[in-house]
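Example 3.2
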Amino acid sequence: PRLNVAHLHAPAAKPLVPAGASDAEKMAALQAAVMRQVRALVRSTENVGPRFAEEARRIHEGDADDRPIRGTATVEEREALAEDGIEVMAVPDFLDDERLQ
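Structure, written as tokens:
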């Protein structure tokens, strides 16, 4: 019998913060890591623009492929979606690379 142990020799993951960093540096590194993850999540969605409410409803009803989307919706559209049991979340512009200047 043989075992594949090559993964045991892989380099260790690089720490977020160098050893001996201050609490403020650790917090800043953690915040930066969270921001990178959230931006990656936003990038992995399809931007449907002003058709967001319509597309969210189509996905909810099974008339469109189930996929992560983002876009714009009015307060009234968001309220109507919530009444229909469709949960949406507002995302600040600074998290969307397409909206950054």
